[in-house]
Structure formats: structure tokens, C-alpha cells
């Protein structure tokens, strides 16, 4: 099982537009190789959070992969020509934090996640 750390540059913009949808689009080959049960640890910067510690990293989500598929090109924000892969997370085993966790805070994560 793999754990992958992902920098979510447009966290606020994407989250507001997604309505809580657990999909990640990328052109990186790494995402094509993900399997069901593996996790994405999503982080963003303090600047993206409007936090005074702009350079700090914040944990904003942990997603458990349900499947990785070729991008079906059904979302104009993520055209298949630029984003070849779609990772779909299991919404019952994934979460997005309302209050992101800053770098340096100890987290405990159980396998149930």
C-alpha cells in the first residue's frame, strides 16, 4: 500500500467548485499506478488558506483511493488532453478537513481511514 503526498495548489478554488467531490485529475504517471486502498495525503500552503503563515504547509485532506481511471473528458475544467488520469476516492473512507492542520502538529491515523 502506498501513501502519496500531494500539494493541492488550488485547494480553496477546487473545493468550492467540486461540491465535495472526491476526484483528483493529473497528468503525472504516478497517479495512473495507484491502486484501491492507497491514500492521498493532500497539503496546501498557508497562503492558499489565507493564513498569516503563508509558507507553512497544511494538511487539508486524506483520501483513500477507490480507483484510477483514464480521464473520461467529462469535466471542462480538467480536459483529458492536459489531465490523463482521474483518481476517484472512496467518500466513506476519505475526508477533507474544515480546519486544516498546520505542519508540525502530530497526527494519529488508524488503518480504518
Low-confidence stretches: none
Mean pLDDT over all positions: 82
End-to-end span in angstroms? 13 Å
The structure class reads mainly beta
From the 3D structure, determine the CATH topology: Archaeosine Trna-guanine Transglycosylase, Chain: A, domain 4
Count of alpha and pi helical runs: 3
Helical fraction: 10-25%
How would a textbook summarize the main sheet?
A: 6 strands, mixed
Order of helices and strands: EHEHEHEEE
Number of domains: 1
Give the class-level CATH name: Mainly Beta
* Overall morphology: globular
How many strands? 6
Gyration radius, in Å: 14 Å
CATH architecture grouping: Roll
Query: What percent of residues are in strands?
Result: 35-45%
Structure description:
This protein has 113 residues and is mainly beta. Strands 1, 2, 3, 4, 5 and 6 form a six-stranded mixed β-sheet that branches. The chain has a single domain (3-102), classed as Archaeosine Trna-guanine Transglycosylase, Chain: A, domain 4 (Roll), CATH 2.30.130. The protein is built from three helices and six strands, in the order βαβαβαβββ.
Provide a concise account of the structure shown.
This protein is mainly β. About 15% of the residues lie in helices and about 40% in strands.
Topology:
Blueprint: E1 3-7, H1 11-18, E2 23-26, H2 29-32, E3 39-45, H3 46-49, E4 57-70, E5 85-89, E6 95-102
Parallel strand pairs: 1-3
Antiparallel strand pairs: 2-5, 3-4, 4-5, 4-6
Amino acid at each position: 500500500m502506498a501513501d502519496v503526498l500531494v500539494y493541492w495548489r488550488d485547494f480553496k478554488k477546487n473545493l468550492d467548485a467540486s461540491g465535495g467531490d472526491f476526484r483528483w485529475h493529473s497528468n503525472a504517471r504516478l497517479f495512473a499506478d495507484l491502486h484501491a486502498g492507497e491514500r492521498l495525503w493532500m497539503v496546501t500552503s498557508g497562503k492558499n488558506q489565507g493564513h498569516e503563515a503563508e509558507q507553512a504547509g497544511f494538511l487539508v485532506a486524506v483520501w483513500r483511493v477507490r480507483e484510477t481511471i483514464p480521464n473520461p473528458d467529462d469535466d471542462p475544467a480538467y480536459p483529458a488532453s492536459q489531465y490523463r488520469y482521474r483518481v476517484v476516492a472512496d467518500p466513506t473512507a476519505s475526508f477533507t478537513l474544515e480546519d486544516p492542520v498546520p505542519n508540525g502538529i502530530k497526527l494519529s491515523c488508524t488503518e480504518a481511514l
